[in-house]
Amino acid sequence: MAPLLRTAAAYAWRLLVVGALVYAVFSMLGRFHEIAVAVFLGLVITALLRPVTDLLARVLPRPLAVALTLVGSIVVVLGILALVGEAIAGERATLQREFGAGIGRIERWLEEPPFRLNPEALTDVQSRIGKFLSSHRSTLLSTALSGTRRLVEVLTVLALALFCSVFFLHAGDRQWGWFCAQLPPSVQDRVALAGRVGWGTFTGYTRGIVLVAATNAVLVGVALFALGVPLAVPLALLEFFAAFIPLIGSPIALAVAAVVALASEGPVIAAVVVALIVVIGQIEGHLLHPIVMSWAVRLHPVVVALTVIGGAIAAGVLGAVVAVPLVSVIWAVHQALRRARAPGPAKPAEAGRPARATGDQP
């Protein structure tokens, strides 16, 4: 057998094994996706709240520090949601009036050059929408009931995530140390190193993306409030959550803000919001991500784009959110293990220390 063919065959069977393993992992995650999501959210909560818990644990017993951190975080989140609900309820009457007038302005705008749409076509669209809603009431009702069941599932996942985060915050390092101790001695050091590097990458990415999302939300909220666009606070909150999907989340959220601005304030303000999309995209891409994401593994933009799209195809919005930190962790662990196998004296940061002593794992 030719050397080239032998090498190709060797790589081929390894790729088949890796592909089968990846397929098996995703099949298991798909079957138990609620548990996987809960554990992932528990790790995110741990990454965000671990510094606060450690700070409080210096003066308080650790169980009390964990309880205070989680309760305080829940109060803050509920307060933000209450603020958003109050903003929507307070502007409800104004929004109905402005959106009614805004739809009329959009119709007149479409009737003028360069579009020159037939007014009867716009009226026909409105009547068709009304007929569709009236003829599909049962479908809409079943969809609403399905949404209620989905809400129950979401609340269950959140409760399980909080339950996991309690134990991760309280004794995550001891749990990881116990897990490493159950492995064969020949692989304990490598698994401990992989855990430290992976957790460090995950926490760096999580805290970095939260900081980027918060900065984007503040910029969007201030800009929309200055332009007089209604629902500035809810749209800023939408921008915050959309920023967790790299590259595409922020433009989509700002596109929604542009539609709201078009319906309420007209095409001029909508054009300003579109320009805001470009400005914030430049700030995020050239300032925030290079500075903040240096805490974690910096992936090439092409890799990020392919990862986000692949995650979205595999698991929808959740896959787009999870894909980048997952690839970052895998790449960081690969790099650390490769350096550890390299000849020469090991660096202090790469020496195989017991995981129990580091406290870096969740």
Structure keywords:
mainly alpha; 362 residues
Question: Could you characterize what this model shows?
Answer:
Helix 1 packs across helix 2 (33-56) and helix 9 runs antiparallel to helix 10 (267-292). The protein has helices at residues 3-31, 33-56, 62-90, 92-111, 119-135, 137-181, 185-227, 232-242, 249-265, 267-292, 301-341, 355-358. Helices cover 85% and strands 0% of the residues. The chain has one domain. With 362 residues, the chain is mainly alpha-helical.
Structural class: mainly alpha
What is the radius of gyration?
Answer: 25 Å
Beta percentage is: under 5%
* Domain unit count: 1
Distance between the termini: 50 Å
Helix content: over 70%
Q: pLDDT average, as an integer?
A: 77
> With helices defined by DSSP (H or I, 4 residues minimum), what is the helix count?
12
Poorly predicted parts: 346-359
What best-fitting shape do the alpha-carbon axes yield? globular
How are helices and strands ordered from N to C?
A: HHHHHHHHHHHH
Main sheet attributes: strand count, strand direction, barrel closure: none
The overall strand count is 0
What layout of secondary structure does this protein have?
Blueprint: H1 3-31, H2 33-56, H3 62-90, H4 92-111, H5 119-135, H6 137-181, H7 185-227, H8 232-242, H9 249-265, H10 267-292, H11 301-341, H12 355-358
Helix pairs in contact: 1-2, 2-3, 2-6, 3-6, 4-9, 6-7, 7-8, 7-10, 7-11, 8-9, 9-10
In short:
With 362 residues, this protein is an all-alpha fold.
